[in-house]
Amino acid sequence: MDNKSAGFAPYTGGEPYVFVSYSHQDSDRVLPILEAMHRKGYRIWYDEGILPGGDWKEELGGHIAKCEAFMAFISKAWCGSGDCGNELALASGFKRKVVPIHLEENIEYPSGVGYDLIRSQRLKLLKLDHDSIDKFLDKIGQTEEIKRCQDPSQGDFGLPRREIPWYREKGIQWYLFAEGILVISPEGSAKAEKIPNYLYLHAENGCGGPWARDQGEEIVEAEIRDGITRIGDAAFLGCENLKTVKIPESVAEIGRMAFQGCKNLKQVEIPGKTRIWGDSFPPHTKVTVRR
Questions:
Q1: pLDDT (tens digit, 9 = 90+) per residue, 215-256?
Q2: Residue 106 CB partners (closer than 8 Å, separation 6+)
Q3: Calpha distance 274→289 (Å, rounded)
Q4: For the domain 18-147, what is the CATH superfamily, name and number?
Q5: Of 99, 130, 65, nearest in space to 290 by CA
Q6: Which of 17, 32, 76, 206 has its CA 20 to 30 A from that of 152?
Q7: pLDDT at position 120, please?
Q8: Is the dihedral of CA 262, 264, 266, 270 positive or negative?
Q9: Residue 31: CB atoms within 10 Å
Q10: Which helix (H) or strand (E) covers residue 196, if one does?
């Protein structure tokens, strides 16, 4: 059995929460979605790898009975899983709000599937790019039962929004969260800002953005927020442990040597209109264009 888990523990408190039903064969697709929901303040319970056995109904059934909403990530693997079907049957029996999320096109529900699943409005999440997940989060927030599972004071990786100690420089702000996730956005109410060039600036301290120079070894993921229009030269130079970069549609250009030295950055997806240089990324990084 695949025992992968998301980067946070399942919720165990007494507030409303979402129960997530998914096939472990879909872990690589579902877990990043759950992490994005968690960063938006949603309380989530998900199965980290309960082994089948006599305690299945007692443990899972208890979590389903107490949940505010039952979110099912539907795929061919989910439809073929008896455990997932049992979870749905319990959710229907407890009269929980069922929210089906289709991960694939042309899903055929198996015979005998719950009426709640058939009649529910279905959402689709066929891609895992930044924009698709953002739209998905907006849509689920319109479901009243799921909305009750979000703590409005939380977001951005669990820190109260008003207490995030943003660092600021030249129109941008950034913060490195405990999970090694760096977030960079326009400062305040600004709608369009550029990440400065760092190839020659601050030469006495070395090249690279301040996050790269001061905390480069800690960064494993970089999320560039909408409104950033350019990623400057050498902005992430030498961030050896960086594995994931989320680049929004607003970025029109990625500068020279922006990600050179990022040894663990194996692939990255960029918007179709974004201009890059031959040395923006290391030779080993596979760059795909978002259509």
A1: 889 999 999 998 999 999 999 999 999 999 999 999 999 999
A2: none
A3: 9
A4: Toll/interleukin-1 receptor homology (TIR) domain (3.40.50.10140)
A5: 130
A6: 32
A7: 63
A8: negative
A9: 17
A10: none
154, pLDDT greater than 80: no
Task: Dig out the tokens for 20 from the structure.
Answer: 């997530």
Kindly report the CATH class assigned to 165-290: alpha beta
Is 125's pLDDT higher than 80?
yes
Closest by CA position to 36, among listed 114, 160, 164, 136? 136
CA angle 103/108/111 to nearest 5° reads 130
For range 79-98, the mean pLDDT: 90
Range scoring the smallest mean pLDDT among 53-57, 139-143, 263-267: 53-57
Sign, Cα dihedral of 224, 227, 228, 230: positive
Two structure tokens written together for 222 = 């970089």
**Contact of 232 with 209, CB cutoff 8 Å:** yes
Token readout for 177 is 């969260």
pLDDT reported for residue 4: 61
Distance CA 284, CA 159 (A): 35
Residues 135, 203: Cα–Cα separation, whole Å: 41
Mean pLDDT score, 156-178: 75
Q: What is the DSSP letter of 42?
A: B
DSSP three-state, residue 244: strand
Cα 154 from chain centroid?
A: 16
What's the whole-model pTM score? 0.59
> In the chain, what are the domain boundaries?
18-147, 165-290
Chain position carrying tokens 């709000």: 97
Report the mean per-residue pLDDT for the chain: 85
